[in-house]
Amino acid sequence: GLAVSLGSHKAPWKQEALATIRGAMTGLPKTCSLKELSPELHDKAEALCQRWDLEPGDMIIHTRFCFHRSDPFTEEGSRAHG
Description:
Helix content is 37%, strand content 11%. It has helices spanning 14-23, 34-37, 39-47, 75-81, and strands at residues 2-5, 49-50, 68-70.
């Protein structure tokens, strides 16, 4: 699944989160490490997260500047779509 932090592209803490991710750079940005780099900023992004009950063929359209991440499928959803 996909979790999208709605509104994070314009959140007051966005620049701090980007600086945190970029500050950890030793090559590529460490976007997947926000939880370890700043648990407080990670919690703010998580508080805005939305998850949808998606069906095959569904799509989510969002700006690439929103914080987003993969989200494990639920046991129920995995059984339904086998």
